Predict the structure of ADP-ribose pyrophosphatase YjhB (NUDIX family).
Amino acid sequence: MNEREFLKQYDKTAFDQPIFSVDNVVFTVANGGLEVLLVQRAEHPFKGHWGLPGGFVDLQKDLTLDDTALRKIREKAGVEPDYIEQLETLGSSQRDPRDWSITTVFTALISKQRCVPTDENVSSANWFPVTTLSELQLAFDHLEIIERALKRLKNRATYSLVPCALLGETFTLAELQHVHELILGKKLEAKAFRRRVENSEQFEETGGMTSGRGRPAAYYRLRPGAMGFEFVRSV
Amino acid sequence: MNEREFLKQYDKTAFDQPIFSVDNVVFTVANGGLEVLLVQRAEHPFKGHWGLPGGFVDLQKDLTLDDTALRKIREKAGVEPDYIEQLETLGSSQRDPRDWSITTVFTALISKQRCVPTDENVSSANWFPVTTLSELQLAFDHLEIIERALKRLKNRATYSLVPCALLGETFTLAELQHVHELILGKKLEAKAFRRRVENSEQFEETGGMTSGRGRPAAYYRLRPGAMGFEFVRSV
């Protein structure tokens, strides 16, 4: 039998395979804190519980795993995220009452101002402060998954520019510092933070300035292609 | 319908799911260079080609995804690796001629002296220098996967102790430095390397010394629980 004949008669259902899904931990900054997007489950298992936006690969629509993650976020949040990366894949016989189950987890960042729910599916979606999640009964191992994503985000905040994806397209240095502080849960020294941002050479001034009370502050934006850049020293 | 009734009638085959597998990039150091473990494929697709040791989850035998990875390495290399970590998960409609396919990739390190093939399955397995892989026709996207694993290993070698898993249980500082140099593809300064190892406080002298020609060198081993430690500064 040659390969073409083999492929013709190949029946993937002859092998007992685990359930495979994608889950997204989508963070935003709102109401003075970090928030995560959750969806109330319409179906068993964990019907009525809050869980991460995710689901199965659509073998017709999705060309890659990234497509699945982005499609699921679009369906639930109404927009594309400003930043997305794969966190890790978790699989075990215990995490899903249906069967042996695997989930590939993505972490996404989205600026709240862009995130306006646009279709009906979204009515079941809501943002929750990460500090109040223990009061909800989350589906599956989703609380643990969020904690792991948060740990990675904190890590990123010490040595990368990634958290700026939580802001709009333009922002002041004070706003950027504030986002890093929210994620890290501690105050940073303004002078040292400014020096690191400038040394990174990955931001440029837009020319615009804040107006209103106090000293005007310059607006910055990322230089094209700067995403993913790492600070030379951690903050 | 309550959750118990739902689970009773749930049929996972009603959803068209991708093929899911695990692949391992297992590195060792031998013959003065970095080598990777490959297995000659006994079946289509890519029959007769060399590919990464991996396979399907065994829903009865494996409790977690890590179990699948370790089982596959045991089956092909005859031993447990000295270090293993998840690299990433790749999925697309194109990477496998059978169907939409997903693979979770693990990177493992093994010291060559421990790696003696022990059973019949292993006859099809062989170690290849990473510098000669382009001469082989590898199955699927396995060449690209190895390149991604190599990039991660290089990264680890700049800021972690992970590469010492390629040596035996005890080693001299010169041997440890040599392994870092092999991975990084450049010479390191001996004094600075020794200082970083000592500053890490993660190694201890065994009390033994090399014998033979030249000045005797002390044997070191990892302190218990030291694995995963990161250097304060990269090498």
